[in-house]
Amino acid sequence: MILSDANYILPPFEIPLPSPLKRGKPDVACAFCCPGVGGDRMPNKKDLIVTDFHLPYNPKLVEKAKELRKNMTAAERKLWYGYLKDFPFRVLRQKPIDNFIVDFYCAHLKLVIEVDGESHFTSEGKDYDRERTQVLEGYGLKVVRFRNDEVLKEWEGVCQCIAEMIPPSPPF
Question: Which N-terminal residues, if any, form the signal peptide (predicted)?
Fold first, then answer.
């Protein structure tokens, strides 16, 4: 069976993605979940809802995700309106996955894109991001992160890194 997404014909098999960033191996993962939403404890896996995309999510994070969509950071806004909104594949903003809210998610590429602010560079933030990455990668997702200043000051490089994650079209 051949699936189509917009004007692209997609093969029925999965094409491995190339390495995401030229600047070396990235510190993958990011975007804060929202501790304390719906109580002090993180919900168990049994509290999650599985969607058609086969990615479970915590329903208590849906309202927070809507809020975050309305209040994007300057870097998130630039990446969304300047590039990802018209990306060749559908990209969702502030998507709940498991017990987290990821900044951007492309289901077709199984790609999570995170834009990191200062809170991610503390020792606690790094530990949290590392754990988060492991959970998201456990769902078969590729997690890539960019710092706010990279998005704002190295725009072309960020867009090129994301574009390189699109697999080549198969020959016809």
Answer: none
Residue 12 in any domain: the answer is: no
| Number of structural domains the chain divides into | 1
- Report pTM: 0.68
User: What's 34's domain CATH number?
Assistant: 3.40.960.10
Instruction: Tell me how crowded residue 45 is: count the other CB atoms within 10 A of its CB.
Output: 9
Question: What residues of the chain score a pLDDT lower than 70?
Answer: 1-53, 172
> Per residue in 106-150, pLDDT tens?
999 999 999 988 777 788 888 999 999 999 999 999 999 999 999
Contact by Cβ (8 Å): 55, 97: yes
Q: What range does the domain containing 62 cover? A: 20-163
- Is the residue at 4 inside a domain? no
